[in-house]
Design goal:
Blueprint lengths: L1 H28 L12 H13 L5 H49 L13 H50 L6 H29 L8 E4 H11 L7 E6 L5 E4 L1 H18 L3 E9 L4 E8 L33 H11 L3 E4 L7 E7 L4
Parallel strand pairs: 2-4
Antiparallel strand pairs: 1-3, 4-5, 5-7, 6-7
Helix pairs in contact: 1-3, 3-4, 4-5, 5-8, 7-8
């Protein structure tokens, strides 16, 4: 870049000086009455310049002055080129240092950042943008590593259990209870299938592959169908409090059903005796609200945002023995964000209280 800037500056300067010199020579040394009068066409101008520079009939003063102008143009061009080279080097030296530092940090994946200049000019803004980019890249890489580690751990647990069951049964086949072995292997296989399905769904969310095919959905019908489809354990009661009027939103029916299903699965695992679902509509705010409440141990305030992260389980309330993959609430959170809604945990006297807000369709 430094060489290109110098070459361009020298070329422009030389051209400007040459044109100015030619015009000055013509105006100074040519009168309207002599043989060197300014012609009207470009070809004649070129011919006049040649005659002025080296023609046999050119006056000595004109010839000397022409060579002086040529020399001046050459000297000024060299001066401008040198000045441009020096100035461009001083201006681009910090940029080169920043580039080298950025390349070093990007290669080493270091938490350090490029030093921010105090000038406050364009270079400082460039450094700020580069540091922001490095921070985002590091966050994305850390999240990807954590996700891969968690997914590997989750996949290893059912695979280890499945292998142990089969190895024990094969070591003593005559004493093995094969129906029980098959039943246990089927449970581990189903858990692996659910985990793989959830991981693929999250991967599609990350790649933006679930943002097409939306349609108008009646949440009232969707909630009633999901409640009628479920068969909670005998010690739980499932109560629905829903308006009879349609509550229309724009979204994916299957994904919205998945959100409600994940919330109900979470409630069934941790409720003691009752689960309540409420559906309401706020016409003023144009918001549809689905609330899922249970009377279980609840979620501490410090963990009410962390439970929406992938593979998050609270020590007391969420364990692998309850059958969850640790992805249900994360998937529900992603689907809600995809539909431009919010999913949060609101304070309650007992148990967990999930509130899902979705924008309704315009009437």
């Amino acid at each position: 870049m430094r060489a290109r800037l110098t070459l361009r500056a020298a070329s422009v300067t030389a051209a400007a000086l040459a044109i100015g010199a030619c015009v000055a020579a013509v105006r100074l040394f040519v009168s309207p009455d002599d043989d060197y009068a300014i012609p009207q066409s470009a070809d004649k101008c070129r011919e006049l310049a040649l005659r002025l520079a080296s023609g046999p009939d050119a006056p000595p003063s004109v010839e000397i002055t022409a060579w002086s102008l040529v020399t001046a143009v050459a000297v000024l061009t060299v001066v401008v080129a040198g000045t441009t080279w020096f100035t461009a080097g001083r201006v681009l030296r910090p940029v080169e240092a920043i580039r080298g530092r950025f390349d070093e940090l990007a290669t080493q994946r270091s938490p350090r950042r490029v030093p921010l200049p105090r000038s406050g000019d364009e270079i400082a803004r460039l450094v700020h943008t580069m540091n922001t980019t490095l921070g985002r890249l590091q966050t994305a890489v850390d999240e990807q590593r954590r996700f891969v580690a968690d997914a590997s751990h989750e996949l290893r647990s059912p695979l280890t259990a499945l292998r142990a069951e089969l190895e024990i049964a094969l070591s003593r086949p005559e004493q093995a209870d094969w129906p029980q072995v098959v039943h246990g292997a089927l449970g581990d296989t189903q858990r692996l299938q659910r985990l793989a399905t959830d991981l693929l769904l999250l991967a599609r969310f990350d790649s933006g592959g679930e943002d097409r095919g939306a349609q108008t959905v009646d949440l009232a019908d969707l909630v009633r169908e999901e409640v009628a489809r479920r068969h909670p354990p005998t010690h739980l009661t499932l109560q629905l409090d829903s308006a009879l009027d349609p509550v229309l939103v724009h979204g994916h029916p299957a994904l919205l059903t998945r959100v409600l299903g994940n919330l109900l699965d979470n409630a069934e695992r941790h409720a003691d005796t009752a689960i309540t679902i409420r559906l309401s509509h706020d016409p003023q705010q144009r918001q549809a609200v689905i609330e899922v409440l249970d009377d279980g141990p609840g979620i501490p305030p410090a963990d009410r945002q962390r439970v929406f992260e992938r593979f998050t389980r609270l020590d007391d309330a969420r364990t692998r023995d309850t059958g969850g993959t640790g992805l249900g609430l994360a998937i529900a959170y992603h689907i809600t964000a995809l539909h431009r809604g919010t999913l949060k945990i609101t304070p309650s006297l007992r148990g967990a209280h999930f509130a899902l807000h979705l924008p309704t369709c315009l009437s």
